Amino acid sequence: MDVWALWLIIAGVLFVVEMFTFTFYLLWLSIGALAGGVVAILFPDAIFLQVVVGSLVALGLTVFTKPLAARLRSSRGFKDTGTEIVGRQGLVVEPIVPGRYGQVKVGGDTWSATSTEALGKDQKVIVVKRGTTIIEVERWGDTY
Prior knowledge:
Layout: H1 3-21, H2 25-42, H3 47-74, E1 89-94, E2 102-106, E3 109-114, E4 124-130, E5 134-139
Parallel strand pairs: 3-5
Antiparallel strand pairs: 1-2, 1-4, 2-3, 4-5
Helix pairs in contact: 1-2, 2-3
C-alpha cells in the first residue's frame, strides 16, 4: 500500500470521528493528515518530511483558528446552539446507567448523555448541563 493512501485513511478516520465530536481539533488533524498525504504523493520516500508538514499544518490550524473562533463567539448576534440545550426536554433513545453513557434525543439531535440515575428507553428527561459533546440529564418531572 502506498504511503499517501495511509495518510488518506488516517485523514478519513479523523474526519469521521470529528463528525461525532464537533470539537474541530480532529478536523485540523485530519487536514494535517491530508497535507502529509500530498507530500507523500510528491515525495513518497520522505516520511519525516510528511510527518513534519502534517504536524505543522495541524498545529497552525489549531493555533490560528482559536482567535477567529473566539471572535466569532463573542460577535453580536452569535448563538451557540449547544448552550441553548440546557433546560430542554429530551427523550432517552438508549438507556442510561450511572457511570456509562446513553443517548438522548433533544429536538432533532441525538446526544451522548450521562445521568446520576438509571433512565430507561423512551423516558422523558431534562438537560441540566452540557459538556463539549456530552449532556447531563435528569428524569423529567422530578423537579419541574
